[in-house]
Amino acid sequence: MEFSGINTAWVLVAAALVFFMQAGFAMVETGFTRAKNAGNIIMKNLMDFSIGTPLFWLLGFGIMFGGSGAIFGSFDPLVRGDYSAVLPSGVPLPAFLIFQTVFCATAATIVSGAMAERTKFSAYCLYSAVISLLVYPISGHWIWGGGWLAQWGFHDFAGSTAVHMVGGVASLVGASVLGPRIGKYNKDGTANAFPGHSLTLGALGVFILWFCWFGFNGGSTVSMEGDAIYTAGSVFVTTNLAAAVAACTTMLFTWFRYKKPDVSMTLNGALAGLVAITAGADVVSPVGAFFIGLISGFVIVLGIEFVDQKLKVDDPVGAVGVHGICGALGTILTGFFALEGGLLYGGGFAFLGKQIVGVVVVAVYVAVVMFAVFTVIKKTIGLRASAEEEIKGLDSTEHGLASSYADFVFASGGGVAVPGSAPITVVEAEKAVPLGTNKEDAEFTKVTIIFKPEYLDLLKQAMNDIGITGMTVTSVLGYGLQKGRTDFYRGIKIETPNLLPKLQMDIVVSAVPVESVISTAQKVLQTGHIGDGKIFVYQARNVVKISTGERGYAALQGKDDI
Q1: Contacts (Cβ under 8 Å, ≥6 apart) of 157
Q2: Contact 445, 509 (CB under 8 A)
Q3: What is the mean pLDDT of the chain?
Q4: Distance (Å, whole) CA 35 – CA 522
Q5: Do residues 374 and 123 lie in contact, with contact meaning Cβ atoms separated by under 8 Å?
Q6: Which of 15, 140, 390, 499 could crosslink 477 through cysteines, CB 3.0-4.6 Å?
């Protein structure tokens, strides 16, 4: 084969852009989750690429592109076979190998977002390896490697189904088997919101992904000669247009639906448009891209709501909606909007039917295989972190990180109530009933509780259960007699006393017995180890409610309690 410098350079530049999508995914997933798991998420995004790369080289590439079988490629360890039949014109095997490797890594990394904040790191490494080694290469062979779907006429230009829906379906199965985060759903089935700790970080990740998508889609021409020159420019236009229209649609739809334009959902909307256009970016016109983006903007909102509120599947970053639902949607919409063969352009139902069948078959294949994989992991090494590890945060329990944000203090955040099924027993119901109090002679006591940030949600719920009507929580730094915890940084022991991040909860009580507050706090916070915190009790002279001017006992109660 005579090599083409321009084609090879185009493929390599595109491969570098697709690789940089790992940074975008890491930022989105980190920003949309809580700070106590940031290091764990970064580690997972690093390792799924690092694990997947040698495995795809070892066997995955051969399974995907070797041979001409309808179902399976070939076993070709270390990529030593002849791939001249599938290589793009003028592109050498090493360039094509790295281009396909970064696509494989993208499919694997999608799953980490849906299963964030409660998955064991060892389990993640294992199922990520299976996706890169077997799951993605086999379905990829059907679509891109000369398998039965490719032979049949199924069209997926850059991976709405082959990459994104594969990752999205695996995410749905994994999150279902794993179960929701502690406190995500109440006993009545209603969902609680767990806001991400940094929308700024998430937004930067979306912009990086949008930028890199020009390599993801545009690079899939694998050529910059002849007609491919025009196609590449057209792909850039359709990719950008679908993303922008989807973002605008999501913004307006959430503005109408929630009475405010939702920031995080609009960020998901841009990604939904990018995922949906990926299947048909080369065969639809800008008008088709506009409508694909428009439809995606509506579907992503309804899809995320359906997964979260109806299916009760806890997906912290919306990976199932963005990649699974919109990946399938975009592939099917290609059957409507393709300029040649599309239903809306006089092509009839033949091409559309192939698109639908391809989506369904791949989804079923991935769901069945990944359910088996997750079930085996769950029954052997375990899939989910313990309740205590989840509450403390995976940064601390899985990786020994006090915080992923040096010199900054973050509470556990979320502002959600943890249901009574949490693994810590709080005060009994009979003790939670306020005792009789002489309102005129009421005494006021201030209770200050210093505790670990990861216990905020549990402590708030416990205090609410015993009748506490108000509290003030602040972030503080400090250490006790142990002079802080001994830490290591890059293998070096830190000898100086550490000011550890803590939270301080201040409560003033009158109707609720002080001992109930103290005993409840102890039951929630006590682990038996140094660093559980302290409780300080002070006598308060009076209380004034600014909004009403009420003083004393009345200022601490709700209207029904007076």
Answers
A1: 217, 220, 235, 278, 279, 280, 281, 282, 283
A2: yes
A3: 89
A4: 25
A5: no
A6: 499
String of DSSP letters for 254-277: HHHHHSS--HHHHHHHHHHHHHHH
| 5-384: in CATH 3.40.50.2300 | no
Mean pLDDT of 110-138: 96
pLDDT digits (tens, 9 = 90+) for 406-452: 666 444 443 333 333 333 444 444 444 343 344 666 788 999 999 98
How far lies 547's CA from each of 550, 551, 555, in Å? 8, 11, 10
Per the CB < 8 A criterion, the answer to whether 144 and 87 are in contact is no
Q: Which residues pair with 487 in a beta bridge?
A: 494
Q: What is the mean pLDDT of residues 186-194?
A: 87
Decide which of 3.30.70.120, 1.10.1200.10, 3.30.870.10, 2.40.110.10 is the CATH code for 402-561: 3.30.70.120
Virtual torsion, Cα 216, 222, 228, 231, nearest 10 deg: -10
Give the residue ranges of DSSP H helices in 259-381.
263-277, 286-305, 319, 326-337, 350-379
Closest CA to 451 of 471, 465, 468: 471
Q: 359-412, pLDDT tens digit by residue?
A: 999 999 999 999 999 999 999 999 999 998 998 899 989 998 877 886 664 444
Q: Nearest Cα to 224, choosing from 4, 495, 550, 509?
A: 4
Instruction: Please tell me the distance from the alpha carbon of residue 43 to that of residue 21, in angstroms, as a whole number.
Output: 15
pLDDT for 551: 85
